[in-house]
Amino acid sequence: MSRLVxxxxxxEFEDLGFFKNIFKNKQIRIKEYKASxxxxxxxxxxxxxxxxxxxxxSVNDKKEYNFIEKxxxxxxxxxxxxxxxxxxxxxxxxxxxxxxxxISKNSKKELGFQTVKKTSNGSEDSLFKNINxxxxxxxxxxxxxxxxxxxxxxxxxxxxxxxxxxxxNKCYALLFHIEVTSEIITNIV
Length: 189
Known about the structure:
nine-stranded mixed β-sheet, 9 strands, 6 helices
């Protein structure tokens, strides 16, 4: 049986973007879920991967968006089972929150392409090692996270001290967007 990616979309137009073609070419199946209505359907097996996408809401908006707590609980289950998980933008904030980090507003929004720098941990990490020490990444956020206990900082920039981290062997959190296509960017701005 082929591998399966469970993609949790917090808003309709923030989906897997260019990852869809990569997964298709590698014959990796994809199941997409709307966080607002389909969280109870996410039932990944041991070999599956969960990717939690971005969205304009805040992790701190749990009263307004009841699915946020469900996402955090799913993340905790994944972390406890040492399963593969990737969080992008809001997804990274949800992972940080599940790990006990504080989510807060940054002094300014990051919107558009900004330079991100790898840390020494990033240079040594298998996912980041073939990326340039400085690279452009698309940003659309104001909320940021503190670095979770026992997490390895992988990237930062002038605006935001913690742009990416790794927790354990299979959990990555990226505050910036690596999945964007021109269609996604058009819908954001």
